[in-house]
Amino acid sequence: xxxxxxxxxxxxxxxxxxxxxxxxxxxxxxxxxxxxxxxxxxxxxxxxxxxxxxxxxxxxxxxxxxxxxxxxxxxxxxxxxxxxxxxxxxxxxxxxxxxxxxxxxxxxxxxxxxxxxxxxxxxxxxxxxxxxxxxxxxxxxxxxxxxxxxxxxxxxxxxxxxxxxxxxxxxxxxxxxxxxxxxxxxxxxxxxxxxxxxxxxxxxxxxxxxxxxxxxxxxxxxxxxxxxxxxxxxxxxxxxxxxxxxxxxxxxxxxxxxxxxxxxxxxxxxxxxxxxxxxxxxxxxxxxxxxxxxxxxxxxxxxxxxxxxxxxxxxxxxxxxxxxxxxxxxxxxxxxx
Length: 337
Hints:
Blueprint: H1 2-24, E1 38-45, E2 48-54, E3 60-66, E4 78-82, E5 91-101, E6 104-112, E7 121-127, E8 138-142, E9 152-159, E10 162-169, E11 179-187, E12 190-191, E13 196-199, E14 213-221, E15 224-231, E16 239-246, E17 258-259, E18 274-283, E19 290-297, E20 313-321, E21 327-328
Antiparallel strand pairs: 1-2, 2-3, 3-4, 5-6, 6-7, 7-8, 9-10, 10-11, 11-12, 11-13, 14-15, 15-16, 16-17, 18-19, 19-20, 20-21
């Protein structure tokens, strides 16, 4: 009898440990992490992961806080801001990113006006609270760029003591497209006057449906500054491309940047992964792995405008690296591997 009780106790303990390990591990991820959340961004601070993304109603900004990446799935979102009823910031609230800069939180996001939803510009909120799900968010206004025709998808990063912003705007005077611009930042809400294009659509995979380069995500590793970006229309043609510059290069010189001629992550019908894109990068809890957060659908065919199909779900996967120090996105690899 004692032996049976001992065996049952061991089995119970092993089951509990395995369950806790799965709960706290970063792989495999409990995908999708968030249903109907596009353009996901995850940052790690204060021992927490903070998740922010586009909601399908395009009408608000919300944050989820979790001790683990998997915990994002079951965490209740906190609404921190809602669109205006008229004027700027009144429509198409898109692609928020949450950044901690000099002891203050900032949310960069895109928005149209209530009267013209396609008058998209970049805006910023700030909050001095230690916890971004608490405190008061202040509207800092528009982040103004030189082109200022269709500005969105702002991301920011620091490199060697200098803060930069990369964002999307019209990049050609001859065709209707969007490309990526980069500039140094004078402060968290102001761009330096020198603003240059580092990529615009040129390959067939970048011009399917629309001529698009958008959604930049920065990762600095192995002596290089990498920028993943998204291309083409937001249906199954949506995909991720890759830019990089040497870490010692002048990042506001377009000649410093290289672009792979093929996408690095795109639809994979065998894995039911369609239109993957607009990713961000974060780190595993132990700091040993780079984690890619992205959105995708699990079906190909969409009725009507894909922007209004809500089923872009947030997913996570481990980013691997090649022997020559380049990121390996794992096109033929399932998120569980």
